[in-house]
């Protein structure tokens, strides 16, 4: 990690753009115009690609920084949580609400776990794993698909399931399963630290 890397380097600027894109994503998604769902999906996908790009550039240019290490996961969690809230409102079904709640609760749990482990000097034990990376890809892909396919409803209010929606739901459930599995692995790695630790507020 660079000791004197400037805060406003290129990787961090890309991350800040991802944060700034969140209100734009919300606005685009709810604009009552044709194609707004596709534009929202494209914007979310672009944000997901900058997540990979800013990390790559930070390593390639030697511009990793404490600020970037803090901001990057925060930006990811914010845009995913906002997108899931919008999807729950549009789909309004238990089948989407449950995985959305699981994903959000997992992110809160793992974030708290990493903060606690960092205080103990054991942050590396709960670093992002390969399972976590696969989970992120499945999560981003499923949300992109579901944002781009606002569902039609029958007269009784049920969602008309199209092949695209089935794919989106299947990918979301895959992401949810990987979410639970990766959380289990992080908790298991941190388990030796649970005994004798002080209780915080």
Write a compact overview of the structure shown.
The chain is mainly alpha-helical and 201 residues long. It is built from six helices and no strands.
Description:
- The protein has 201 residues and is mainly alpha-helical.
- It has 6 helices and no strands.
- The mean pLDDT is 85.
Given the helix and strand composition, which structural class is it?
mainly alpha
Secondary-structure element series: HHHHHH
Main beta sheet? none
> What percent strand?
under 5%
Number of strands: 0
Mean pLDDT across the residues is 85
Helical amount = over 70%
Give the assembly state of these chains: single chain
Separate helix tally: 6
Shape: globular
List low-confidence stretches.
none
The rounded Rg comes to: 18 Å
Terminal residue distance: 31 Å
Strand and helix layout:
Blueprint: H1 10-30, H2 36-60, H3 66-91, H4 94-119, H5 130-147, H6 163-194
Helix pairs in contact: 1-2, 1-3, 2-3, 2-5, 3-4, 3-5, 4-6, 5-6
Can you give keywords for this protein?
201 residues, mainly alpha, 74% helix, globular, CDP-diacylglycerol-glycerol-3-phosphate 3-phosphatidyltransferase activity, EC 2.7.8.5, CDP-diacylglycerol--glycerol-3-phosphate 3-phosphatidyltransferase, Phosphatidylglycerol_P_synth, lipid biosynthesis
